[in-house]
Amino acid sequence: MAGRKNGTVDVLDDVSHGSESGTIGRYLLHRAKPYLPPWLGVAGTGLAGALGSLRWQDSAAAGAGLTLASVALTGATWWIGRNTSQQRRLHSAITVAAGSAWLTGACLAGPTAGPLDDLFLMGGPVIALSWNVRAVLRRTDNSSSASGDKGLLEKVGLARAAIGATTVEPNRVTATLALEPGEQTTEDVSKVLPRLASALDLPTTALRFMPDPASARRGELVIVPEDMLTQVVEWDGPSNVGGSIADPLVIGRYDDGSPLVLWLPGDPEVGRNATHLLIAGGTGSGKGDGALNVLTEIVSRRDVNVLLSDPKSFQDFRPLLPAFDWAEEAGAGTEAMVEALQAAIPARTRWLGAHRYRQWTVQAAGKQTDPAHSCRVNGTACGCPGMPYLVAWYEEAANTLRALGDDAFTGIAQEARAAGVSLIVSLQRPSYDQMSTSTRASLPSVLAFGCDARDEGFALPETVLDAGAHPGAWGNRRPGYCYLVSAGIPEDRYPAPARTRRFTTRSMDIMEQLADWAAANGAPMDPVTTRAFETTVGNAYTQRTRHTNDTAPQLHIVNDEEADEMTDDALLDPEDDGIDPDADLPGNEPGDDAPLFGTEKGHKPTPEEARALFEEALEEFETEGRMIVGPRDFTDWCETHGYSRPWISARLKDAALDGRLEPTNQTGRWRIVPALAAA
User: Fold this and answer.
1) Is the distance from CB of 277 to CB of 262 less than 8 angstroms?
2) pLDDT number for residue 135
3) What is the Cα–Cα distance from 295 to 33, expressed in whole angstroms?
4) Which CATH architecture has domain 149-223?
């Protein structure tokens, strides 16, 4: 039993069953067994030569037959060994050729004729020993590989998989993997990745498998043994202030230390299309910091405008407000922004087409001085003002989708990329009950943070999950950990974990400085988009609030002295002087229930007067910038003037026929056509 505890299965258990010398002999025989076959082959060849000489010595016909048999056996050995290594194939062929040649000579001339006996005594042991040496080396190799690659693959059910070329980089190992033909597919590797991670004592996110698109049984296995994301990196500013939005946006780092980058515009030179972005993640997953990483990179570029809708009252983005061309909270302002953006997309597309841009490029943002991008038919430079890139950001978009409908962004998502517009939608759970499947399909890029394991399929494509991505493993325990799937990023990076930088209170001052820089140096909104916005929503855009960090409301805490001053007698109404606040109120007196005014009925407006009042209400809404209205917006008006909701619905339809209102994508909501445009 002591031998078993030491990990050996020796002869200690057999001591009680025989003598010590017998036990040692059996042990030596057991250890020698693997090396006996070559020696038995040499002995058998010598015996066959001796016996063959008794029958075929000096026989010419036997000589011809034995020679042909020797050549045939050597050729067969070479052919059979075609699937083995080159060294083993050559070694086997030489052994068979030497043995069959000696056997032929021994059978025809006798085993002791000439040098045959000396060749046997010297060559036989050499050949046997060469195979013994090979067996020793093979056992050593097999033991090491069994504890490494092959043994590991065997444990997880991929024993017949072949590991090819391996690339070793700092904190990253990439190995090509070929599975058993006809027996296994790349899907089998995806299924065993968790078990493989367990065998290596690594997290499941440290392994991913990228199938070869041209093969169903080949791919690359990537192992990142050390998680370099555990160290928190604070945001200390954007990567490229004053650069172009066409340059990569650096928003974090991968688990091997390489930068995490994102592109929004397309690039026809490299065949990359423009993209929209979905930012998804559960509560506490670091989605807010991830959004700030993306947004600070965007506003630091010289040729981009940003529209922002944030139902959280700009809780995270307040220091950046001066950098935005148009910022709205939830409600009518966001409704107007969506309508304005939908109207601006065809106008921007027409401008790009007229200037011979198949998609937005950096040249489109500047003054059009290149004849190759002129809107004039004579081929001369037109000198038109440029069109900066446009980013429409909808934070906590679930709120907006509930108010406008789950397909509010569908038209924008399907058409905006050709117009030099990127739509960015941020929400916790991008499920089918939050947004329409058409909108989700039109958001090809996703920045996915930790989530519930049941929601992984809503955030990432199935192929990325099969390759090893697992945001459900993080939940809210790894803030900032994420996966990025987007155009321009190599596909083997899709299942690679990354982490965005963290924003702290120390980041606030830098964000304010960045916003002031963007307000002073960023691109103004181009005339084409401005005209589309003004024509569509009028005052909602022209009278939008332009934020500055100097005018941000400050919270003032009232101290005890100020509270006493506020209750000082000098601040009281003189008519209330002398009233005892502790005295009881007087009782009812005669005449208290008499009406203060006459009891005659009021004047009911005529239909013409009612329509005029309705038009005044529309003008009031337009002045306030409330350009999207419906029956619920007239509730107070109806109570004041004594009209019902059906009457308002009828007037809304009449106004639509008169061109004063336009229907929106949402049932029961109408866009006020600015008075000048309607005229």
Assistant:
1) yes
2) 80
3) 72
4) 2-Layer Sandwich (3.30)
